[in-house]
Amino acid sequence: MRAVRLSVVTAAATVAALTAVTGCAEKSDGKGDGAVQVVAKDDACEVSKTKIPAGHVELAVENKGSKVTEVYVLFPDDRIVTERENIGPGTKARITAEVKSGTYEIACKPGMKGEGIRSTIEVTGGKAAERSPEMDRAVAGYRTYVQAQADETLPKVKVFTDAVAAGDIEAAKKAYADSRIGWERTEPVAESFGDIDPKVDVREDGLEDGQKWTGWHRLEKALWQDKKLGAEEKALAPLLYKDLADWQKRVGRAEITPTSMANGAKELLDEVATGKVTGEEERYSHTDLVDFKANVEGAEKSYELLKPIATKNDPVLTATLDKQFAALDTLLDKYRADKASYEFTSYDKVGKADRKELSDAVNALAEPLSRLAAAVTK
Q1: CA 251 from centre of chain
Q2: Which residues on adjacent β-strands are paired with residue 244?
Q3: Are strands 36-40 and 51-63 parallel, antiparallel or unpaired?
Q4: DSSP state of 68
Q5: Cβ atoms within 10 A of the Cβ of 206, count?
């Protein structure tokens, strides 16, 4: 689920961490190196160029507003080319994307809600980004992985939604976390469609005005807090399955590039930092560590597929990423008795000091991971 669901209190408490996690402490402001300057304010999204050549584009983002923001590059139909979430006030981020000729929009979302403040850009002339055989293999491998995750998820969702529809609270609780693993591993691809995530993975505090609350977290609340499954909850179960079946069918048509893979890996770490480490994501079931592990696995899969390319261009970076992924994986193993199992410690049993240790490990990985897209396109 998008980290836009942060409460005001949580957002204020985590801005310092987000500076590290979003790769905002850039040594270069991007001026003079061909990057498109994006200045995000509370009431404006200023873009330095409205016409750029096709290929790889760099966005040098600076948040001069008072709110945590997001920046998106969007297709005309609102599908996401790339994004960077949780850019804290006074911080910077650098984003690498791959674009073909056509019309796009750059959107800033102060407060991380709504349609955002948008600027239209035209991508003209130039050549599409050249794709090496290694890049093609990485994209093909990731496409296969994403489809496999969706295919394997749907039967697990059916177990969960059948239990809800039958009013079997204990069976539904048992199936809940397992039904989310494949989604959490590949969430940036699902989010790229724009309309599925708000249906299946929104939290109550992330609802837009007039939006009906549906999906996993609506049922999570019913199971763990309300401790009852009424007619409304039972009716939401088949709807969740239907929406996820739509996701399964559409995954194969997703726009996937080497840069979207790298940026998606970074987005998954942002998800961990702003939802799982804080306990915001699974606030009723406390199954945050299952989601945490799945997010890390998804990020690591993207990295492993891109590693042969990145190693040629920046071996120091890949050595750092190898070390930090291994450290985070080892740390997570402390919270499960069986390394082959997804039965993790309930997150409400994880103390403040341990949560800080997890947060530090995520930050140590997220900063170098924010540089993967640039390394892949050198």
Answers
A1: 16
A2: none
A3: parallel
A4: -
A5: 22
The C-alpha atoms of residue 49 and residue 26 are separated, in whole angstroms, by 20
The CA-atom distances, in angstroms, between 273 and each of 13, 87, 113, 231, 267 are: 12, 13, 18, 35, 10
Q: Are 180 and 213 in contact (CB under 8 A)?
A: no
Q: Length of the chain, please?
A: 378
DSSP at 45: E
Distance CA 83, CA 104 (A): 13
Q: Contact, 10 vs 277, CB < 8 A?
A: no
Q: What is the rounded CA–CA span in Å between residue 85 and residue 70?
A: 4
Classified as helix, coil or strand, 160 is: helix
Helix or strand (DSSP H, E) at 80: strand 80-87
DSSP-based three-state secondary structure for 67: coil
Alpha helices in 104-132 (DSSP H): none
pLDDT tens string, the chain, 378 residues long: the values are 554 433 333 333 333 333 333 343 344 444 556 899 999 999 999 999 999 998 888 999 999 999 999 999 988 888 888 888 889 999 999 998 888 889 999 999 999 888 899 999 999 886 667 788 999 999 999 999 999 999 999 999 999 999 999 999 999 999 999 999 999 999 999 888 878 999 999 999 989 889 999 999 999 999 999 999 999 999 999 999 999 999 999 998 888 999 999 999 999 999 899 889 999 999 999 999 999 999 999 999 999 999 999 999 999 999 999 999 999 999 999 999 999 999 999 999 999 999 999 999 999 999 999 999 999 998
φ/ψ region of 359 (left if φ > 0, alpha if ψ in -120 to 50, else beta) reads alpha
Question: What CA–CA distance (Å, rounded) separates 357 from 277?
Answer: 10
List the Cα angle 138/140/144 in 5-degree steps.
115
Q: Is 130 helix (H, G, I), strand (E, B) or coil?
A: coil
Nearest of 322, 243, 334 to residue 293 by alpha carbon: 334
| Distance between first and last Cα of the chain | 31
